[in-house]
Design goal:
By secondary structure, the chain is α+β, with helices and mostly antiparallel strands. It has 5 helices and 12 strands. A 6-stranded mixed sheet has the order 1-2-4-3-7-6, with helices on both faces. Strands 5-8-9-10-11-12 form a 6-stranded mixed sheet, sandwiched between helices.
Length: about 180
Amino acid sequence: MVVSSANTQSFVKLIEYLNCDGLDSDVATARLRQRLLISTDISWNIYENLLNYLGNSPYFKVIYHQGTLQIISPSSRHEIYKKMLGMLVENYCLETGIRFYPLGSTTLKSQEKLKGIEPDQCYCIGSKKNIPDLAIEVVITSGGIQTLEIYQGLGVYEVWFWQNGKLQVFCLENYEYLQKKK
């Protein structure tokens, strides 16, 4: 679904579209998990209001980039991959004695840069910081907002993408991401 409007009515349409009534039903949950919404001309205020409305809902992942809003309802396959990659990072850190702080899908945002994202998993390494050192994204469907540009603007040092059974690693160097080879 695509919504294009820059007023409060667009916020109401988003809320109606994402109405969480009936989430206890397996059929309703399955239907909601297939939803992807991209809206344009969305103000920062509407983005903030939507985040407040949704709270810490595990049913939706919200991404905002300079007026474009994307809302994804992750599938169970997405959640399995995200959890497995997170366990890989956590076990590696525990085994090697690296201090880490798991932040899960904490919302990262900057009103000044008009960017906001909820990584699938993210971690601070060494010490707790406002912006994590590592973000992990599981890509099941494509065609949405390019998240690497958001992470770049927020200053996340390393981003991992799991897509089609392959892991891609990007590291921020001189304000640009470089893909690391094996």
